Amino acid sequence: MSLFQAILMGIIQGITEFLPISSSGHLAIFKELFKVNLETGILFDILLHLGTLVAVFIVYFKDIKKLIIEGFCILGDCIINLRIFFYNKIRKEEMPYRLVIRNSYRKFVMLVIVSTVPTAIIGYAAKDLVEAVSEILIVPGVCLIITSILLFIADKYNEGTKTPKYVSYNNAFIIGICQGIATLPGISRSGTTITACLVSGFDRKFAVKYSFIMSIPAILGAAVLELKDVGKMTFTAGEIINYSIGAIVAAVVGYISIKIMLVVVRNKKFKIFAIYCLLVGITACIGYFLYI
């Protein structure tokens, strides 16, 4: 892979990961149309996603730091409650348990965990299918059309008011299923999950925050699964440099895209992205029939 291709794909990843137009769909179309040689592409894909993950950490650093702290506190309280349980059983006493979910950030942590479970199951089960259909140009084309429909729906939805305190675990589970389905190339992860959040009545600003933060365990989990194959590959110094530059570009462009997305959701401007996805999807479908 040339440096130019790495930079171009980094730009595509940074823009499409957070704007609701599907990074996987655009990368799949790009690879097919330009016949990019990605024999060691697993590492590059991992680095691209980790690059955009860095952008999430920068934008939501305070929230993520608080979530991590409260996550460990939840674990600590659960361990203490377990000790109290055995103490009460042995001593025949009624020592009160600690209230575990006692603030919004702790509820936020639990919501992300609940969303991650169906995402992980679907992502792992459908891994081979996703890899196979990514090489068929019509699949990301059709999926982009589906994304377009979802964005038209999101554009019509009224303002919600739900913050972590009022979001149910059923909401979180359904949104996690949506994120799992969005592993298909062309189904925008951000577009799908933000639409699901808005349909569930989330406050618009929180919908964006939840969508991006809930992607962290999903991306990290996928990276860990892929790392086992990276060890079997060999890379030249030039490839490592190009891959790294591509990841840095993805991080910078991703940061800008998140900021843009916050404005888009606040002002209900999904329609332009819906039209774009529709046009690209139709073009990809036409391209498939021209190339076969």
Describe the structure.
- The chain starts with a helix and ends with a helix.
- It has 13 helices and no strands.
- Helix 2 (23-34) packs antiparallel against helix 7 and helix 5 runs parallel beside helix 8.
- By secondary structure, it is mostly helical.
- One of its GO terms (cellular component) is plasma membrane.
- It is found in: Cell membrane.
- It catalyses: di-trans,octa-cis-undecaprenyl diphosphate + H2O = di-trans,octa-cis-undecaprenyl phosphate + phosphate + H(+).
- It is an enzyme of class 3 (hydrolase).
Keywords:
cell shape, 292 residues, single chain, 0% strand, mainly alpha
Mean pLDDT: 87
**Class from secondary-structure proportions:** mainly alpha
Query: What separation lies between the terminal Cα atoms?
Result: 26 Å
Count the E strands.
0
Task: Return residue spans where pLDDT drops below 50 for at least 5 consecutive residues.
Answer: none
Shape: globular
